[in-house]
Structures are given as structure tokens and as C-alpha cells.
Amino acid sequence: MEESKQIVKLVITGPVNAGKTTMVQNLSDSQVAATDVAATDHVSQLKSMTTVGLDFGILKIDETLELHLFGTPGQSRFNFMWNILSKGAIGAIFLVDSTSDDSLVEMTKMFEYFQKNVDLPVVVGATKQDMPGAKSIEELKTLLNLGDTMIIPVDARKKEESKILALTLLGNALVDAQEEDDEEYEDSDYEDLF
Amino acid sequence: MNSLVFLRRMIISQQPARVDYTVGNQTKSVYYDRSGFAGTPIEVAQALRDIFKSQSVIVVNNDIDLSQANKLRIFAPQAISSALAGYKFDAETRAVLLSFTMRLPPLMVRLFPMNRYAFQDNASYMKMHMQFQHNGVFRMQHYISQADNSLDEIVRLRVMMATYILGLIAPLSKQSEKSHNATQRIYGNKAQATPTTRGKKVGLLSKIIMRIRGL
């Protein structure tokens, strides 16, 4: 009998044209199912195709575990999708275009929604840092009001940098999970106190 | 801090008992029954303070002859409130109390009208109870470490002592913690990941990290 597979999700989100689809492709070992269509609204000025559904890729971890990567559409009006995406997710990566003021405004809305409604480890990747007019990491941190959330420069086109961003998120999540473990007490640790 | 453990057990059992404790070279005793500690308020408060510090405390439950004891009784919450009013500790006692705190498991906090017994740190106790109500679990370690300054830490440690001795805190069973979390998940507005056991989560994350490194 075939052993049942466990599936965990990693969500890659952020405003339009920040590199989400590219990052899903970089981290997947299967062919990515993209739902890009020709952009018709203001997005058409940024790029010819945009994601309307979900980008989806699979990274097989072992025979019993798969990481499913979801790239969300880059508009805050799709925030409602978090209710579905966050179930079974291990974390979220936000990507933001460092050169675009519109991207920052959209990112602020999306991140505000995320902080209020979603309880997942998160890391922010600032893309296009090599482009003229790119805001520095410090400026982005202030403008986006990220608080303690980590923001890291990333070139989503480079697989190695996508890996580093994902590993940062997972490393932080691992530390949190280990701390939670440490808080678990065995009965024998305290039974003499009660 | 064995004296806290002995006092808690004695008060919770509500059986007649005699506490023998050593102060310097002297061994003293205080009687207890379900009505409270025998003695005047001042005597009982001093006895309890001595017991907190004493290295040698024994609770005797058998053949207790209360006829020798003072007829006056100080109800346990009143006695503990009085003993802890303004109670401060030296560095060594603080270290012992902090170490004791570290051993406490996730707790539930019971609400009891300590204000009726002139408990000076009632506001801090109320905060503790609110934290428990909000989170469904109370971690004494967090509560103590969140103290604003050393004076606040003393207050919180006193609240820990009072609530522990009087049985107002107790280990939270994993079942009830889970049940509360489930309720939070249903009524809370935060979308949460599907619960996995914690150890399992660490294992999953480790596997994924290894895999991504190898990409």
C-alpha cells in the first residue's frame, strides 16, 4: 500500500512585478503551473503578463513529504486568499520591487493585512536592488513599517539568492519551533512542585 | 524552595498540620487547620516570612493537638497577603525564586478575590489572570521576565509566591491547552497553519532546509 504523503506549503507573495513567479520557478523541481495572462490594467505598463490565479510549483523533499510553493497574484484585492493559503503553510515570503513607489504602497496594504490576519513566519525580499532608483534596505524597512520583520536584498532571477531567502525564512521558523519545543515540559520536570 | 511546596500542599489539603521550621538555631512551629493559621496576624505573618527563608521546614500531619495552639485563626489568603506585604528578598533568595519559576510548567490561573484580603499586589495578579484568559495558557517565566524594572520583578515574584502557595495556579493539562487553542482558532480572526505537533514541525523544517540547500 502506498504511504500517504504529507504536504506543506510555502507562500510567495508581494506586489506586482516583484519576481514571485520567478522565485516559485527557482525553488520548484517540477514544472510550474502558471496562470499568467496579458495584463490589462495599470499592470500592463509594468509587464506584459501577470498572474491571475496562483503560480504553483512542487519541491519533493523525500518520499513522504512535498513542499508546495504558491505564488499569489500581486494585488492587495486578493488578500482574502490568505485564509486558504495559510492552512498548512510553514511560512511566507514577501517580495517587493525596490524601485517602484506603487509597489511599496501595495506592499504596505498587503503586509498590514498579513500582520492582522495571518500567523506565519515571514521574511521580506527586496528585489531589483541593482536597478537605478532602488531604495536601500533601511529606507524600505522604514517606509514599509516592517517592525522586527527581516528584509533581505534578493535577485529573484538567481536561484542561489532565492534559496538564501527561503533558507532564512525556514531557519527563523526552525528556531521558533525549537523554542516552542523547549517550552514543552515533561511531567517529571515539575511533578514534585504540585 | 521547598517551603513553598510544603505550604501549598498543606493549604490545599486543608488538613490540620503543624509546620516546624528552623530560624537560626531555633526551631519554631505554627499550626494550621482549614480555618487558617493559628496566631495573631502579626505572629502569623512573621512566621510565614521565617518559613519562606528557612532551610529546614517540616509539615507534620499526624496526631496534631490543636489545643495548644492559639484559638485565633488567620485565613490562609489573609495570612499570605500579610506575609508578602512589602516583602523583599536578597540576591540569593531572588535567585532561588527565579530558579523555582523556571521549573513551573504552562499554567492555568484561577481567579480569587485576593483584594478582599488586602493583597497589595492584586493589580499584578489581575494582569496575570488576564494574560491567562487571553492566551489560554500562562507561562510564569514570561510573566516574570516581562517585569519593567527590579521593583516590578519583586512584585511579580511575590504574586508568583502567593498564587502558588494558595493553589491559584496549577499545571495546565495539555488537553485543555489544546482545547483552548482550538477555541481560539474557531473564534479568533487570525488564519493559522494546520496544527502539527511541535517536535514534528522541527523535523519537517529540518528536512525542507536540507533539501533546499541541495537544490
Protein described:
The complex is a heterodimer of chains A (194) and B (215). With 194 residues, chain A is of the alpha/beta class. In chain A, 34% of the residues lie in helices and 25% in strands. Chain B has 215 residues and is an alpha+beta fold. Chain B has helices spanning 2-13, 41-53, 76-84, 91-102, 122-135, 140-145, 150-165, 174-187, 198-213, and strands at residues 17-23, 26-33, 36-38, 57-60, 73-74, 107-109, 169-171, 191-192. In chain B, 32% of the residues are buried. Mean pLDDT of chain B is 85; it is low at 177-189 and 191-196. At the A-B interface, strand 4, strand 7 and helix 5 of A face strand 8 and helix 9 of B. Strand 7 (118-119) of chain A pairs parallel with strand 8 of chain B, so a sheet runs across the interface.
Which short descriptors sum up this protein?
heterodimer; A: 194 residues; alpha/beta; Rossmann fold; six-stranded mixed beta sheet; two-stranded antiparallel ribbon; 6 helices; 34% helix; B: 215 residues; five-stranded antiparallel beta sheet; 9 helices; 15% strand
Offer a concise description of the structure:
The complex is a heterodimer of chains A (194) and B (215). Chain A is of the alpha/beta class and 194 residues long. Chain A contains 6 helices and 9 strands, in the order βαββββαβαββαβαα.
- Total number of helices of chain A: 6
Strand order of the largest sheet of chain A: 4-5-1-6-8-9
Average pLDDT rating of chain A: 81
Tell me about the largest β-sheet of chain A.
6 strands, mixed
Low-confidence blocks of residues of chain A? none
| Shape category of chain A | globular
Alpha carbon gap, first and last residue of chain B: 53 Å
- The CATH topology of chain A corresponds to Rossmann fold
